[in-house]
Design brief:
Chain lengths: ~170, ~140
């Protein structure tokens, strides 16, 4: 994944903060100054994940017109029977998020313009009683701002399970 | 911002993150984050095709709500690191509580830092997220 322009916008931050139930004014009120000395609108700690909105090929967003989308329509899946349901969540026992780590180098603020590049990290396997064989894979994303400075390093770990996890 | 002189190892901060999680909040998170994986919002796909009892929350929704507890404790814009493992799924109807415990207070490269251990549990006491965070503090 590479993202050329991830616009950090105040209204997107407000929507994101609402969705995680966070009514901290630092996420919507540009006049607000917090006790820690922060002012202007900043992004919540996990906001970088919403860079998916700016990835033109993001596979977990229906394409314009909805073609090829694997969610339900008339049938439980929109995919044709010949298509495999594999891949990140695309079928029974598909990909799940196992771990997520963020390292913050600078405070992410409304008005910033980030770019992102992702590199694959380690891969490993594990046996699990709950879901059979687990295949883990790591990806490391570096978010840089308009000045080329590193703002956030995000490391995600995904897991493919042999069967659905029933906790 | 926390002050080194006012905190000690073992101190805790706890918040209820959500009571009776609604499917609509999961939809809200899908819209804001851009992650429209049908496992989180599409009941028919999730039950009939994927074989789960119902839709479940994005791990990142739980991490986001847990992050709110962390920033309420350490202050805005002070985080240096925040990482979690998703240990169990979060379902509609769940009530989540999150606790941060101070594990270290230290200095690194001239900065005063606090390390936290984080656990978010559901109404049955099952951990759904375990993790850690590091934040800047004042002396």
């Amino acid at each position: 994944m590479a993202i050329d322009k991830f616009l950090i916008e105040a209204s997107h931050i407000m929507m994101f903060a609402r969705s995680i139930g966070d009514d901290n004014p630092i996420y919507y009120d540009e006049e607000y100054k917090s006790e820690s000395g922060c002012e202007g609108i900043i992004a919540p700690p996990t906001f970088a994940q919403s860079s998916a909105q700016f990835d033109p090929d993001y596979f977990l967003r229906p394409k314009t017109g909805g073609q090829g989308w694997f969610g339900s329509g008339k049938e439980p899946t929109g995919l044709k029977p010949s298509s495999s349901g594999g891949g990140g969540g695309g079928g029974a026992g598909g990909g799940l998020h196992a771990e997520q780590h963020f390292e913050y180098h600078l405070t992410l603020k409304a008005g910033d313009i980030l770019s992102a590049t992702t590199k694959p990290g380690n891969t490993w396997e594990k046996e699990s009683k709950r879901a059979g064989k687990l295949k883990f894979s790591e990806s490391v994303t570096e978010y840089r701002n308009q000045d080329g400075d590193l703002v956030i390093t995000a490391t995600g770990v995904g897991v493919q399970t042999e069967r659905p996890v029933d906790s | 911002m926390l002050k080194a002189s006012e905190i000690k190892v073992g101190d805790t901060h706890s918040e209820e993150l959500v009571e009776d999680l609604k499917r609509t909040q999961i939809v809200q998170y899908a819209g804001a984050s851009g992650d429209y994986n049908p496992l989180h919002t599409d009941e028919i796909f999730t039950t009939k095709l994927a074989g789960y009892p119902t839709v479940f929350a994005h791990g990142m929704l739980t991490m986001g709500m847990t992050g709110r507890m962390v920033t309420n404790y350490v202050g805005d814009g002070t985080l240096k690191k925040y990482g979690v493992r998703f240990t169990s799924q979060v379902w509609p109807g769940d009530t989540l509580t999150s606790v941060a415990t101070i594990t270290d207070i230290r200095e690194e490269d001239g900065e005063n830092l606090v390390d936290l251990e984080i656990v978010t549990t559901n109404q049955d006491g099952l951990a759904v997220i375990t993790g850690s965070a590091t934040a800047k503090i004042s002396s």
